[in-house]
Design brief:
single chain, mainly alpha
Length: 81
């Protein structure tokens, strides 16, 4: 018999691991030379937004947040610098 993980305990654990990975990737991207630094960080925000839109099916506020992240990522990638 396989032990089952409680989803209420698994979700915060996965969220914490995801945050640690995200901060690590962000730190690596911030060491890149320009324009690769702003392009890669902008792409990360845009991809995060896309994943929020896909994940947030049925929850309008998550999809709006995803749209804001996509817009911010594109603005950061192409208009800042």
């Amino acid at each position: 018999m396989k032990p089952k993980l409680n989803p209420d305990l698994l979700r915060p654990l996965l969220g914490t691991i995801g945050l640690m990975i995200g901060f690590g990737v962000y730190a690596v991207a911030s060491d890149l030379p320009q324009p690769w630094q702003r392009l890669s960080i902008g792409a990360m925000f845009a991809l995060l937004g896309v994943s929020a839109v896909i994940y947030g099916k049925g929850e309008r506020w998550i999809q709006v947040l995803g749209g804001v992240l996509i817009a911010y990522g594109l603005l950061r990638a192409f208009l800042t610098g």
